[in-house]
Amino acid sequence: MASAALMRRAWAQTAAQVDVAIVGAGAAGIAAARALSAAGLSYVVLEARDRVGGRTWTVDGLGQPFDMGAHWLHIAQRNPLVSLAQGLGLDLSPSEPESGQLFEAGSPRVEADHDAYHRAISQMKRRGILPSLFGQDRPLSRLAPNPDRWGAVALTLPSIEMAEEPERVSLHDYLSLGSGRDLQVSGGYGELVKSLARGLNIRLSTPVSDIRWQTSDGVALSGAFGTLTARAVIVTLPTSLLAANTIRFFPELPDELRQAVADLPMGVFEKVGFQLVRSRPDLPEYAIATGPVAQGLTHGLHFSPDRSVATVMLTGDTARNLLAAGTRARIEVARGLLADVVGSADISTAVLTTDWLGDPLARGAYTHSKVGAMKARQRYATPLADRLWFAGEAARGEHAVTVAGAWISGTKAAAEIARVLRR
Questions:
Q1: Which of 61, 108, 192, 227 gives 20 to 30 Å between its CA and that of 71?
Q2: Are 260 and 395 in contact (CB under 8 A)?
Q3: Is the CB of residue 324 less than 8 Å from the CB of residue 236?
Q4: What is the rounded average pLDDT for all residues in the chain?
Q5: Distance in angstroms (rounded) separating the CA atoms of residues 185 and 74
Q6: For residue 107, how many other CB atoms are within 10 A of its CB?
Q7: Contact by Cβ (8 Å): 354, 68
């Protein structure tokens, strides 16, 4: 501890000024650092955690790497992280949500039930056509008003995608997201992001408490490390932390930006991972237990490529309620959901659980726009006084709410700053 404190003091004394300071070493911060380095600008990344990656984090514990956070490379054909992963020699395997199946009491439901389910999905897509064309907004739940049994099951898909109850989510925001192929990273998404951070000037365990963004020298950032000055700053914190004022801004942020942050709350997406007693090649990649959906348990199940690890995904109020009930209760409910698909005999005792909502440096999974706040993402990413930028998955675009969206946002902010500083 003493040596770490000495190192922090020494760093504060020797690196008091840079062109750009970046707050947060998640995907957006790492992307910005790489872009600034390529542009020949000096920078430093200040990260409160003792690791890089933010909400991308891969751990061991179920016999193979397990992504506690982000898992999929979405919209692979236009995802910049795909080529970066390939450049690192990582294997990417396709992920196909459309191949998912419905189960009850350990057995697949009959073909007629699957047909009814797919008809419900088709009806939801048709209901989204006009709002999409005319830019109208309404709750996401309007895709399936007064849903029957299969409509309720179909509505679990956008609920999982947006990590929130559909009546609280902007339909316009949901429809603005892109679609395409999904890929999984061999070794874990968190390991990919960690690899992309190698060699960058990142200071871990260095939280920022204050940002003065209109000083005579540019921007001043303060914390236990001392004070750092920069010509510009990129803040990549989750909107939940910005809304909670975990960093104090002097002067205060404009009302329009604070409203944008409030209109982009973090949803809840938690995982419970189980190791199976044996590999189950007969299982689909994705599954839903239909009985629990009827009981109000919003969930989905995903199985690893070798079908030896199962991930129970819990979202919205289902996840909130189970987090409040405690870890043991959450595991037991998740085990019951999994047993509805594989049977209880194939579930081992090896388990991993997440709590992103309770993580003080996340306080949720990823953003969604409130109903009617159609310009919130654009306003969030609008720079202030050519000194203060915000970047992350909350920024607008077809990749919003994903790691790729954060990456693109960080790269864009760095490019804009480079142009400003070279005027």
A1: 108
A2: no
A3: no
A4: 94
A5: 11
A6: 10
A7: yes
Any idea what the Cα angle at residue 195 is, between residues 417 and 12, rounded to 5°?
55
**Which residues, in sequence order, are bridge partners of residue 269?**
315
Contact 82, 73 (CB under 8 A): yes
d(CA 48, CA 223): 10
pLDDT score of 9 more than 80: no
**Rounded average pLDDT over 49-55:** 98
| pLDDT, average across residues 251-268 | 98
Structure tokens at 144: 């399936």
Max CA separation in the chain (angstroms): 70
At 99, the pLDDT band (50, 70, 90 cuts) reads confident
Closest C-alpha to 388, from 232, 229, 281 = 232
CA distance 421 to 423: 6
Identity of the residue numbered 372: G
pTM: 0.95
231-242 per-position pLDDT tens digit: 999 999 999 999
Q: Label each residue of the chain as H, E or C.
A: CHHHHHHHHHHHHHCCEEEEEEECCCHHHHHHHHHHHHCCCCEEEECCCCCCCCCCCEECCCCCCEECCCCEECCHHHCHHHHHHHHCCCCEEEECHHHCEEEECCEECCHHHHHHHHHHHHHHHHHCHHHHHHCCCCEHHHHCCCCCHHHHHHHHHHHHHHCCCHHHCEHHHHHCCCCCCEEEECCCHHHHHHHHCCCCCEECCCCCCEEEEEECCEEEEEECCEEEEEEEEEECCCHHHHHCCCCEEECCCCHHHHHHHHCCCECCEEEEEEEECCCCCCCCCEEEEHHHHHCCCCEEEEECCCCCEEEEEEEHHHHHHHHHHCHHHHHHHHHHHHHHHHCHHHEEEEEEECCCCCCCCCCCCCECCCCCCCCHHHHHCCCECCCEEECCCCCCCCCCCCHHHHHHHHHHHHHHHHHHHCC
Residue 1 pLDDT > 60: no
Per-residue pLDDT tens over the stretch 295-326: 999 999 999 999 999 999 999 999 999 999 99
Residues with Cβ within 8 Å of residue 338, at least 6 apart in sequence: 274, 301, 310, 312, 347
> Is residue 243 over pLDDT 80?
yes
pLDDT confidence of 16, banded at 50, 70, 90? low
